[in-house]
Amino acid sequence: METAIKIAADVRSKVRTAESVVREALDAIESGNEKLNALLGTYSSAIEDAKEIDRRIAAGEDVGVLAGVPIVMKDNMLVKGERCSAGSRILENYDAPYDSTVTTRLRAAGAVLIGRANMDEFAMGSSTENSHYGPSRNPWDVSRVPGGSSGGSAVAVAAGFAPIALGSDTGGSIRQPAALCGIVGLKPTYGRVSRHGLMALSSSLDQIGPFARTVEDAELVMSVMQGKDEMDATSAGVVEGVKGVDGIKGLRVGVPKEYFVDGMDENIRRSVLDAVAEFERAGAEIVPISLPTAEYALAAYYVIQPCEAASNLGRFDGIRFGYSSEGQTLLETYERSRGEGFGAETQRRIILGTFVSSAGYSDAFYKKASKVRTLIKRDFDEAFKRCDVIAAPTSPSLAWAIGEKFADPLSMYLSDIYTVSANLATIPAMSVPCGFVDGLPVGLQLMARPFDEASLYRAGKFYQSVTDHHLKIA
Amino acid sequence: MISNEQITHIAKLARLRVDPENVAKTAAELESILVYVAKLQELDTEGVPELAHGDGLTNVFRTDVAMGLDQDQRSRVIAAFPHKEGDLLEVPAVFQDRTE
Lengths: 474, 100
Prior knowledge:
The complex is a heterodimer of chains A (about 475) and B (about 100). Helices cover about 40% and strands about 15% of the residues of chain A. Chain A contains 15 helices and eleven strands. An eleven-stranded mixed sheet of chain A has the order 1-3-2-4-6-5-10-11-9-7-8. In chain A, helix 8 (about 265-280) links the parallel strand 7 (about 250-255) and strand 8 (about 285-290). The longest helix of chain A is centred in the C-terminal third of the chain and has 21 residues, at about 365-385. Chain B is built from three helices and two strands. A two-stranded antiparallel ribbon of chain B has the order 1-2. The two termini of chain B are about 40 Å apart.
């Protein structure tokens, strides 16, 4: 598919209709989704919504900067009247009663929401294998995972179903699948995008962000989604840092030694350092930096994240909505509904989160991890005194075979090792395609100061202007 | 070592029915994750405050008024109730054994 920018320009200038764009997207899904399992369903209103955009344009209205752009939602974002399963059995018959704020804002800008993407159950996982509806498949090699948890969203863009998909990123769930599928994925600063109507996983870490082929497209979608929302008390309403400037002369690019250690995948190291060399050639200043507590980030994450998840998932009780399995007592109804409704990984995290926050263990685990989180943030604060963006790998490995890590939870968790720090430190981070190894994409991760997405756009747009990795089609 | 009894106890706290034949496997998985996260203890965090959320987000207040759902949203919420009587959510008795 064309980029969102091109589609919106064509639709606004009546070169083509929104309906034709949306039909093209739905046709691509119809012919390609059976193999890839990227989407769990399409929205029934898509064609009508597109026709309405066309009617309004014909009437001379300005329908917005995303006029006619088809967008895929992750299946944990509410679109009123549409099924919303979060990849879980417990919500297999759940229809959203209201719109999420991102739904409202995208539609207000003329976008057409076309379908809901597969995901690891409640966004926990790094491969989409934890979906109750089966794994999505990587379009570069269908025997491999697309990454996760927003794997279906990444596949939808990489396979050309839509120019834009939304994901949610708690510990890398946008950036890692973007890397493994060869597209752009942005996790904004904590507080940049409203989470109202996003199913809460870990409330101190979750952010909604876009997948796209180009950084320009991601920037455009962010311009519509971001900003203060009364319905989300954690939305910050910061208006700076939303537009990247052109050119990177003088930009300081930090390279953290802890992200390039012995034993890492040599091909990934080379691809990422080649990308850094592109910045240097164009006049950026390369600054060696250190993030000493980086190696503790994953451990802190896998304490804090399960604690918050166990708490948030308490609302799924078999009483108010979702799957309900009646027992002899109220307690038994809770236990059966949750035991039968949640999949293995969700139950594992609930057990883990309950354990590390329980009396007698919470000081040693949860409180300790929350203090380590402060040290991690201080590391970044120090580093950003000397550089404007940090360059690192997104994923420690290329897309792996379906099933390869599924039986070993800890090895699956380790695939998040480069991404969780940005969530813990609440900073924005973006993955940009930076090469291929054996036909599989590699991602360059760029990180910046809180609310300085502008530097990510600046660096990312420059990089895509001198490389063609993002132009290759799966 | 995490015992099977601990897993059963935690599962009860979390209101999860864990298949008895999976308890030992769950204990082993939890153990391997806890061994990994124990590396946090290597760091000195004496006097370091806990970090719970992003910058500048303290005391976010709004006016204390109820924000009602419109009729359409209200009917959709009610439609999602697993068990209902009219527009009311039906819940099992809290203190009673159903068999009594």
